Amino acid sequence: MTLVKTSILSAVATIVRILSGFIVTKVIAVYVGPSGLALIGQLQNFINIILLASGNFLKTAVTKYTAEYKEQEEKKYGLWSAALKITFVLSIVFFFLLMVFREQISQQLLHSEEYAYVLVVLALSMPFFIFNTILLSILNGQKQIRHYITLNIVLSIVSLLIISILSMLYGVDGALIAYVTNQSFVFFITLFYLRKEPWLKAKNFLYTIRAEHIKKLFAFAMITFVAVIASNTSMIFVRDYITRSLSLEDAGYWQGVWLLSQITLSLITTSLATYFLPTLSSLKTKHEISVELRRAIYIILPIAIIISCSIYLLREIIIVVLYSDQFAPMSELFLWQMIGNVIKVAGWLFGYVLVAKAMVKYTVTTEIIFATTFVLLSIYFVNNYGLVGVTYAFAINSFIHFLAMFFLYKSIQEERL
Predict the structure, then answer these.
(1) Are 257 and 334 in contact (CB under 8 A)?
(2) What is the Cα–Cα distance from 23 to 16, expressed in whole angstroms?
(3) How far, in Å, are 9, 95, 155, 307 from residue 2 at the CA level?
(4) CB atoms within 10 A of CB 237
(5) Whole-number pLDDT of residue 285
């Protein structure tokens, strides 16, 4: 399947996801307000971290090696079995950690112990989240794009229904519960949808674990692990810094513009994840990789520019329609957030080459560096320019990241690719 076809299919899923995201955002804006949106942002980042540590860090590795070993069933099934067993053990460990420290985590993360029960629900839901991710990663790696995108559409619709209904009925509490349960329901839908797939047999996930399987998974998974930990930890820190330095409402305004940019750019990230990563993983020569990268730049970068410019020009309408009058102060945050988004996409295109070729040292190092610089730049610019400073920090950090990815790609392609 070509990048164009994948992008068209991804566009369908992304339209559904965008519409779902817009509706969810509107519901949350009306029923929980800016401060509630900030709390939800904190919880989402924590969910990403805890799910990652419980086994989600294996998803990119599963996608890569499923694509790479497509015709080598013993290796492929061995890696699947290793991923499933590792996930099972880690899920048990983090289940008990969440149960024991739920009150302390709630206080530090959400500034109140009253939300400790949300972490109990997360502990119970966690395995289903992760198992669903592994199944989707296998689909992605096998390039069963139609199934993969269909299930992502289902995920968007189910999340929309659960989050909207619970938010309208129970406000902030309902929204928090919805975010820690939605993919648990989707896991059973995924299992039912794939029940007739020839590869979805218990024996294919029960191979004996070998040291080489664990080594491959962990070596490559370090990229995903560090990337998600670094990005989500930096987001939690920056949002908490805004809350303490300015207000919880200001953190909600920033969360609003950040959420908007992430929703609308999901077309790009979906195309990169569903087509670009498996394709680059299967290419062998420098010329093939350069051709594929050039094609992606010509297609994806203009899309990012059009999306970002449209959002900026329509920002006043977007705030009224998508959020509410309470979010009017968001308007000043759009310009540099959108500029940063375009630059970030350009950096991702070069960075995905490093990820696809398992250049762990380079990828891990840059993820840590740029998560740290985003935090430091945010502190500096928020202190000097107020809330809008966090968008200055994002744009500058994205530009430095792009330069680093570009020059790193150029410098290593001769020796590594």
Answers:
(1) yes
(2) 11
(3) 11, 41, 24, 22
(4) 17
(5) 64
Phi, psi dihedrals of residue 293, rounded to the nearest 5°: -65, -45
Q: Is 320 left (phi over 0), alpha (psi -120 to 50) or beta?
A: alpha
Interval 102-137: pLDDT, tens: 999 999 888 888 899 999 999 999 889 888 888 888
Tokens found for residue 217: 């998974």
* Apex 293 CA angle, 292 and 295, nearest 5: 65
Are the C-beta atoms of residues 331 and 316 closer than 8 Å to each other?
Answer: yes
Q: What is the mean pLDDT of residues 391-406?
A: 94
Contact indicator for 248, 34 with CB cutoff of 8 Å = yes
Structure tokens at 301: 């970068």
Tokens at residue 129, please? 């989240």
d(CA 125, CA 122): 5
- Maximal C-alpha separation, the chain: 60
3-state secondary structure the chain: CCHHHHHHHHHHHHHHHHHHHHHHHHHHHHHCHHHHHHHHHHHHHHHHHHHHHCCHHHHHHHHHHHHHCCCCHHHHHHHHHHHHHHHHHHHHHHHHHHHHCHHHHHHHHHCCHHHHHHHHHHHHHHHHHHHHHHHHHHHHHCCCHHHHHHHHHHHHHHHHHHHHHHHHHHHHHHHHHHHCCHHHHHHHHHHHHCCCCCCCCHHHHCCCCCHHHHHHHHHHHHHHHHHHHHHHHHHHHHHHHHHHHCCHHHHHHHHHHHHHHHHHCHHHHHHHHHHHHHHHHHCCCHHHHHHHHHHHHHHHHHHHHHHHHHHHHCHHHHHHHHCCHHHHHHHHHHHHHHHHHHHHHHHHHHHHHHHHCCCHHHHHHHHHHHHHHHHHHHHHHHHHHHHHHHHHHHHHHHHHHHHHHHHHHHHHHHHHC
Does residue 276 have a pLDDT over 70? no
Instruction: Look up the pTM and report it.
Output: 0.76
Task: Specify the length of the chain in residues.
Answer: 417
Q: Alpha-carbon distance 229 to 239, whole Å?
A: 15
Q: Does the pLDDT at position 417 exceed 50?
A: no
With beta carbons less than 8 A apart as the criterion, state whether 319 and 341 touch: no
